[in-house]
Write a structure and sequence with these properties.
The chain has 208 residues and is an all-alpha fold. It has eleven helices and no strands.
């Protein structure tokens, strides 16, 4: 029952189509049919030409993840797997939104919002790596993809350190790795199209 409740909480929060609702209301734009068609902060900023709109989408999408895991922690206390499941299903619902024909965002903001509550170590590592890779190529998608892959490698190489900075305590490295790997793989899958575009345009090989 606890798993079902956790999954449901995560899915409901994650399925709130922030960018779609906000851009429809403020700009009269269907973000799912504009720009890249991605329903996230970056495409919202691109098609609206508004940093404020992009920032609002980013923060609300982060809040979805944070709310899902916080509510699950409130219900079930110090059992890591329940907020972890809420986080994973919030990311899934955000990336494959059931209200928008399973179109969605790339999951980074929702993952960040939930991870900052239960596994801030991973988020900090990802942000540092993102900054490094962005400085190398000055390309957001390249930085997203590279930071995601490298975060996984670092996590696998030092799981004993990572487990110290998770809350509630996961109990085992396997549970922690399941959470992190599942979330990051979903994010990577949603970045396959921009990765193919980078390779096609040979941007991935260019130093800025």
């Amino acid at each position: 029952m606890e798993y079902l409740v956790s999954v449901t909480i995560g899915y409901l929060f994650g399925s709130i189509p922030t960018a779609y609702l906000l851009l429809k209301k403020t700009k009269g734009i269907d973000v799912s049919k504009s720009g890249s068609g991605n329903i996230g902060a970056y495409n919202s900023y691109t098609v609206s030409n508004s940093k404020l709109v992009g920032l609002m989408v980013l923060l609300i999408d982060m809040a979805k993840g944070a709310a899902a895991v916080s509510l699950t922690v409130y219900f079930y206390g110090d059992v890591f797997i329940y907020p972890a499941m809420a986080s994973i299903f919030a990311i899934l619902a955000h990336c494959y939104n059931p209200w928008l024909e399973f179109k969605g965002g790339r999951g980074l903001a929702t993952f960040a919002g939930s991870t900052i509550i239960i596994f801030p170590y991973l988020l900090l590592v990802w942000i540092i790596l993102w900054l490094v890779f962005y400085l190398i190529r000055k390309n957001i998608h390249f930085a997203n993809i590279s930071a995601t892959v490298m975060s996984l490698l670092i996590l696998f190489s030092k799981p004993d350190i990572a487990i110290k900075y998770a809350y509630p305590h996961p109990g085992s490295q396997a549970v922690l790795l399941f959470y992190a790997v599942t979330g990051l793989i979903i994010i990577f899958i949603k970045h396959i199209d921009p990765l193919m575009e980078l390779i096609k345009n040979r941007e991935i090989f260019k130093r800025k």
